[in-house]
Amino acid sequence: MATDLAQPFSTPSEQCIVPASTYHTVNPYVLRSILTVESGLKSSAIGKNRNGSVDIGIGQINSIHLKELSQFGIGPTHLQDACIGTYVAAWHLKKAIAERGNTWEGVASYHSRTPYFNKRYQALIVNEMIRSGAMQGQLLPVPPLNPLDLGASGSRGGLKAAAAGDSQGSSVIIFDTRQ
Question: In 10 A of CB 108, how many CB atoms?
Answer without folding.
Answer: 25
